Request: fold
Amino acid sequence: MRYVKPHYYDKFSCTAGQCPDTCCAEWLITIDDASLERYAGFKSGFGSRLAGAIDWEEGCFLQYKGRCSLLNENGLCDMVAELGEEYLCETCSRYPRHVEEFKGVRELSLSLSCPAAAEIILGCGEGLRLLQEEDEVKEPLKEEFEDFDLELFHRLQESREILFRIIQDKETEAGSTEGNMGGGPSIERRMHMALELAGRLQICVDAGKASDMNGVLREFSTVYNDGIHEGEHAFDEKRRFFRMREGFAVLQGLERLRDEWEEVLSGTWNTLYARGEAHYLKVRGIFLKEYGAGGRFYEDWNRFLENFLLFFLYTYFCGAVYDDWVYSKVALAVFSAVYIQEFVMFCYISSDKSIDKGDWVELAYRYAREIEHSDNNLNLLEELLQNSRLA
Ligand code: SF4
Reply:
């Protein structure tokens, strides 16, 4: 079995009582059968506390005031304190670690919805490197791999490499860098190129010709800086307000996992979109003075967006082997990055320009909680992005 993980994967450690937004609050934590059986074996001492903290019928931990009932007033888990980490159920011991299973390959990632993981993922200053190792473990024969399209999977892995290069490109002599001080195409242009590549790959997949992806990849791996690859995705800056407002309506239509998210959505709507295009452009102009080319946050902000995009591409892109939706995986990354920028813009304006990198990270993990932790939201967004050109 081959294991793939981002170079920062092993840096994660839970900040427990110091966590600003613990995962033991608000989420229903389901307990795997083996752990339930183990917990049922505790009859005395901590056993009675444990018994009262579990909904035995539903197989989950009970909540008290929106928090796991085993979480004490110091934000620490009483089970870990009394019994040790080895007694955590699968959900608690794994989170925020995530595994994507492919034939012969397990891809490990950290979830962006955990504040400590988000800080590592988004604060990374050296780009993304994937580490690989193999062990002798033979993959269990699973029915789900019977129809696994190995050729498509390999092409997707190669495509993801090219997407990483496009997103991290700082070197290419770009025809139009839009005043990009760091050299290479601007981050917006790189996102458009990534979308263009995804659109071309989708055509190959729709035609059932995964082998044709090779030609597209060759083309994009040699030159993607001459403008020809932006195609229909070349962003029409003049229509930005209308596009952003249209896409925002989609976010407003999604299910809310946390009430506080509504404040971000309504604040963004009122600050950016409710007062029309001229107001939006004025606000964006103020934002770009510090976040745009030449601004004091420009480099850090671009690095943050790159890391954000790389996270989504690494985590989701190769999953297209199961549903053939190549375009939506890239569009989800771009759509999310574009709206993180809008949320940061809202917070920047409404806080009188006093937000910092910690606030960027907070908006990102709160966004991830809403999108990634709801199958409904993720599926709906992907469907819309696959079938429209919202991103
Ligand atoms: S959200 Fe992350 S850092 Fe916070 S308690 Fe959960 S695992 Fe630990």
Q: What stands out?
A: Confidence is low (pLDDT under 50) at residues 174-181. The chain is about 50% helix and 10% strand. Residues 14-16, 19, 22-23, 95-96, 114-116 surround iron/sulfur cluster (CB under 6 Å). The radius of gyration is 22 Å.
